[in-house]
Amino acid sequence: MFLRFEKVAKRFGDTPENQFEVFSDIDIDIEENQFVSILGPSGCGKSTLLSMVAGLEGISSGTIQLEGEDIDRPGPDRGMVFQQPSLFPWLTVRENVMFPLKKNMSKKEAQSRADHFLKMVHLSKFRSNYTYELSGGMQQRVAIARALAMDPKVLLMDEPFGALDEQTRHILHKELLSIWEDTQKTILFVTHSIQEAIKLSDRVIVMGTRPGQIIADFHVDAPRPRERDDEYVISLEKQVMELLEKEINKVLKEELDDEAVSTS
Ligand SMILES: Nc1ncnc2c1ncn2[C@@H]1O[C@H](COP(=O)(O)OP(=O)(O)OP(=O)(O)O)[C@@H](O)[C@H]1O
User: Where is the ABC transporter domain (predicted)?
Assistant: First the structure.
């Protein structure tokens, strides 16, 4: 299997008294080139799971393997895109994309690689601009180009379009799908949007909470581009919504109960 999660658990806290388990027994098998989204109520551990694949967060027990190798640290085979593009404002667009490349190749090679990926995200004209001169959507495209330029095997995206307006998000959905088709990357994509997950992905994994676990794994069996008024899409949206609503209500109820105890 290309990317395999086996009995993965995450606990925070360093003493038995303050330890809490975000999730346990997470098993997921992801094939190469698959586009997989992860949905779930706030706090169920979506970002933590992605950070563990990135090697930024330790694994408490279980294993995550990429092509049979245990993941235990960050590496160039995994590229991450966050909700905030986190670019260097003192560098130009091109220099931002070149930045992580310079360690492994000559300046000339890094430049030509950066230009290739800036073309892919339609930002060639802006390569000499500073990133603060760009809109939020354009900055996110720079972050995507930067992650792709490292030629990772897996692209990890944590709510990459969450802070963007609907129109920009729509454009970037189209761009991301076209990049995915061209580059054949495996994508793991965290989102809060059911529509976004169904529109983009081959699979939609739904996480529940308390305890964190996988409660559903939908294979989206519809050709792209997917229209929102397509009957299949509507029915899948409804199924996912019902599941998520139950989980969100569970979280709300626990939070209200906790509040009642702490104020009584
Ligand atoms: N470094 C940390 N130390 C302690 N607890 C943490 C740490 N990082 C995350 N948590 C906790 O772990 C749980 C899962 O957090 P995480 O951010 O992964 O959830 P999420 O599903 O991505 O949430 P959201 O949808 O709101 O972004 C939360 O209760 C959070 O408070």
Answer: 3-236
